[in-house]
Amino acid sequence: MRLLTFNALIRGDVRARLRALAEILRESDFDVVCLQEVMYRSHANLLRRGFAHSACAGSVVLKGGLVLLSRRPIKRWRFVRFPMTGPVRPEFLMRKGALVAEIDELVIVNTHLSANRDDDWSPDNRYALVERAELDVLARLLAGIDKDRPLVVTGDLNLPRDASALADFRTAAGLADAMAGDRRPTYRPTPQWPHPPAFDHLLVRGGITAHADLVLCDEVTLPGGRRVYLSDHYGVAADIRPRDEFGFSPWTDGPPRIP
């Protein structure tokens, strides 16, 4: 299975960027696409071309800004909301949480944790405590899923790869990081923030492996010729395959194919 996770950015030329993203996705070979910061159902509708199945919660404004697109049937899905704790902030309007879907034998959790507005992931930081509380919700959710069942947790976790809260969550839930050791940022560097961390993650368990890489890193051309980035994040694309005792996968044959 080919899977993409991508924070599509809530502001700035949204519809034009989403139309450009929709064309890229339509021509890609992704089986499943997990998106964050898609705030309106009308925006989700722009992205569905080429994907027969989708999941998102909310009639007009989407809960959590989460959308899952799939070329394979979705057996069932549900949205689980995080508690609104910590400092009062506009982010509360997003009603953040996790979108849980079952596709074939695979369980996929698409999520977007609260941002750390202090850029301080030490254990006692006020936003770090919020993120730990949200990870606790995810941990309880995953505890109810058979540990032998193939599972992917992905999305914008708003935590650096080496954050202690994320490491504790991976250990408690038995998850492996598909990009462990990769030091590249997934938030696009800017002059104001030249060395951001990796916020977007793909974690797996249950007898599967994932070979992941960054995608959607370059500018695209909008109608009228203007060049823009699709988002302030990069995408993470992965080939996900079952792991047998020989490490052979019948699902894919070769490295990830980057659109």
From TrEMBL:
Gene3D superfamilies: Endonuclease/exonuclease/phosphatase (3.60.10.10)
Source organism, top-level taxon: Bacteria
Names of the cofactor(s): Mn(2+); Mg(2+)
Keyword DNA damage set for record: yes
GO molecular function, one term: endonuclease activity
PANTHER family for the chain: TRAF AND TNF RECEPTOR-ASSOCIATED PROTEIN, TYROSYL-DNA PHOSPHODIESTERASE 2
Endonuclease/exonuclease/phosphatase domain ranges (all copies): 5-233
Name listed for the protein in its UniProt record: Endonuclease/exonuclease/phosphatase family protein
SUPFAM superfamilies: DNase I-like (SSF56219)
Record keywords, A-Z: DNA damage, DNA repair, Endonuclease, Hydrolase, Magnesium, Metal-binding, Nuclease
Lineage: Bacteria, Bacillati, Actinomycetota, Actinomycetes, Micromonosporales
